[in-house]
Amino acid sequence: MVSVLKYPVSLILLLVAFSTQAAAPSGPERFYCCEGGRICGDSMPEQCRGKAYRILDSGGNLLKEVGPPLTAEQKAQAAAEVLRKKELEDQAKEQRRKDQALLDTYATPQDIDMAQQKAEADVNLAIQSAQNKIEDARKRRKKFEDEAEFYKKKALPPELAKGMRDIDHEIKTQQELLDVKKGDAATIKAKYDADRKRYSQLTGRTVAPATPEKIGATPATGQPR
Questions:
Q1: What angle do CA 38, 39, 40 make, to 5 degrees?
Q2: How many CB atoms lie within 10 A of CB 71?
Q3: Beta carbons of 225 and 218 less than 8 angstroms apart
Q4: Single pTM value for the model
């Protein structure tokens, strides 16, 4: 059964101290107090539930102080803060993993240049191939255009009209492929530029920016040497 005492905590502790001296120590070893010490008990008083309270030993020494329960807004803020810290920890962990992978991949700055050269080789060939096909298609279309001059006031023969449509479709397809490959080339350059920067930060070694002459690749325009 919980004993609830509605007296100043100093008086309660004085009585406890007196009883401890007068008899064998069989009283409560700690008190739960709230309302500035106006309500105390040898167990948590019902009046203290949902409020801030302190736990004191029989000598009046503070063992623990507990604040009031969090409001709904405070709980939401606390949960958001926990989530934010977790996300930061996950990001830091992922960054450490990436950094270690970077160091495991490149032993020297020159390794980055070699890796970029290999990555750009295929995309540069694809760019050159698309450019050649577009140039060839435009030459063939010019022949169709010259032939179409004879039919200015007439309907074009079906074969001629179809040939021009087919060439236009071919040019459009190759141009779309060319745009994609140029985008790939830009992505590759950005990736290895970022690798150089991070490698320098991690190792303290200066890494010179890549140049076409240095890596044996072509500029971002995709024109192979």
A1: 120
A2: 9
A3: yes
A4: 0.56
